[in-house]
Amino acid sequence: MPAGLSQIMIDDMLRGALTEDIPYLDVTTDFLLPDAHTSSAYYIAKADGVVCGLDIALRTFELAGGGVEITALVKDGDTVKKGDILARMHGSTKTLLKGERTALNILQHLSGIATATRRCVDLVQGTNATIADTRKTLPGLRAFQKYAVTVGGGRNHRFCLSDGAMLKDNHIDAYGGITPAVTALRQKVGHMVKIEVEVRTLEELREALGAGCEIIMLDNMSCEEMTQAVKITDGKALLEASGNVTAENIRSIAETGVNLISLGALTHSVTCFDISMRIETEK
User: Fold this and answer.
1) Catalytic pick from 100, 133, 196, 198?
2) Which of 64, 110, 267, 275 is packed most tightly, with the most Cβ within 10 A?
3) All residues at 6 or more sequence positions from 129 whose CB lies less than 8 Å from its CB, including other chains
4) Cα separation of 216 and 199, whole Å?
5) Each residue of 204-250: pLDDT tens digit?
6) Cα four-point dihedral sign 251, 131, 244, 221
7) Does 136 participate in catalysis according to the annotation?
């Protein structure tokens, strides 16, 4: 079972996805093939990248009808090359065909996230920066997407609004300033809850430090401003860089000395990793 994901969560999501795809029958497969028909099939990588979600994808076939023996040839986190075989399956052709699209959708999407994350991690290697995700995830898929980020070598930001207090620009503008907002939160949150504040200027950074915030997000600052922010902070809080992070500038951002670089693009607009399932029909 993938670390951090319960079997109940995985199965609930897969049952919902399969029900969406097969509300009551698969018109093509159910009318075309007898129940006893069997096939061998395999997953093949059509690009280079990092595999993620293989166990989840293979579980799809068990829930789609069963009767399939599966041999995984790689594991989540492995780097594969174009043409590599990821897994082999043998058994009910009906099950293989019914589960094919749902399983591939998950495997391709999560592998795309893991691959993109690994690329970012490699780009900042040797610096103080850690790559992190955001809450910009697809509804219903957050746990899977955040799992994929960790497989790629990144870390998870908040899973949900209950995980920690984070004062973004709209909170601050609505309440009337950083200091009063932090003060109000301190009086109500438990002692285990950290407070993060989003700042847009170095002046706001100094105010957030004065208010005792544990984490400070530097929103859309230039590398020059972030370098100054690191000096001003001097280790008194974790600094998170966010906004307009690209493959072209991520190394420069990391070299400013920030602790975290968060990217919504890892989950909200990632390119799927190209993987195919091919069937070898038997007599």
Assistant:
1) 198
2) 110
3) 241, 253, 254, 258, 259, 260, 261
4) 7
5) 999 999 999 999 999 999 999 999 999 999 999 999 999 989 989 99
6) negative
7) yes
Does 234 participate in catalysis according to the annotation? no
pLDDT tens digits along 20-43: 999 999 999 999 999 999 999 999
Per the residue annotation, which of 21, 55, 219, 225 is the catalytic one? Answer: 219
Burial of 202 (0-12, 13-18, 19+ CB in 10 A): middle
What is the amino acid identity at position 267?
T
Largest CA distance in the chain: 75
Q: Is 236 a catalytic residue?
A: no
Provide the mean pLDDT of the chain.
94
- Known catalytic residue at 283: no
To the query of whether residue 101 is one of the catalytic residues in this protein, the response is yes
3-state helix, strand, coil in the chain (%, to 5): 40, 20, 40
Asked if 49 contacts 78 with a C-beta cutoff of 8 angstroms, the reply is: no
Which is the catalytic residue, given 21, 78, 101, 135? 101
Portion of the chain with pLDDT greater than 90, in percent: 89
The catalytic position among 15, 168, 231, 278 is: 168
Q: What's 193-211 look like in SS3?
A: CCEEEEECCHHHHHHHHHC
Which residue in this structure is represented by tokens 């590599």?
84
**Residue 280 — very low, low, confident or very high, per pLDDT cuts 50/70/90?**
confident
pLDDT in tens, 80-121: 999 999 999 999 999 999 999 999 999 999 999 999 999 999
